[in-house]
């Protein structure tokens, strides 16, 4: 069993504004999770959230930056499991920004969900990405735009 997630969203904000929200630690913490991210290929970082023991998840997402093309593409691993050193979810997250008239198209691909348990995880994560997480990103972009006007 294998599943990949793919979403395409439009934000009426510049690629630079969207890129900032995807790559600055403080901004990422506001719309996604607490982190120690740096947009540098090879940088290993973590996201921190509430553990879900029933899903064998310790609350830490272990990541490594694989690709950075400023204001166009950001790729990093997204791994998790029940404890440090035990990885049961091994996926890749790809953000692609496309400048459009009056804004930015943001594509999110979260690929590599393998096996039944990870298939179930992908259902929950897909609903989150396309629901509350997208909304929090949109809210942050709007707040930043309003603060500069």
UniProtKB/TrEMBL annotation:
Gene3D superfamilies from the UniProt entry: 3.30.530.20
CDD domains in the record: SRPBCC_CalC_Aha1-like (cd07814)
Domain Activator of Hsp90 ATPase homologue 1/2-like C-terminal: 13-141
InterPro entries in UniProt: ASHA1/2-like_C, START-like_dom_sf
Similarity comment: Belongs to the AHA1 family.
Protein name: SRPBCC domain-containing protein
Species name: Chitinophaga silvisoli
């Amino acid at each position: 069993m294998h599943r990949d997630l793919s979403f395409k969203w439009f934000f009426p904000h510049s690629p630079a504004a969207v890129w900032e929200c995807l790559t600055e630690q403080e901004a990422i913490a506001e719309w996604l999770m607490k982190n120690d991210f740096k947009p540098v290929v090879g940088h290993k970082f973590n996201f921190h959230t509430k553990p879900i023991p029933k899903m064998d998840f310790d609350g830490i997402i272990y990541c490594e930056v694989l690709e950075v093309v400023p204001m166009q593409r950001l790729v990093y691993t997204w791994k998790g499991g029940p404890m440090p050193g035990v990885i049961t979810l091994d996926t890749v997250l790809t953000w692609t920004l496309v400048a459009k008239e009056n804004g930015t198209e943001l594509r999110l691909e979260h690929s590599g969900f393998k096996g039944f348990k990870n298939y179930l995880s992908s259902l929950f994560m897909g609903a989150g990405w396309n629901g509350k997480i997208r909304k929090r990103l949109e809210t942050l972009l709007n707040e930043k735009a309003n603060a500069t006007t």
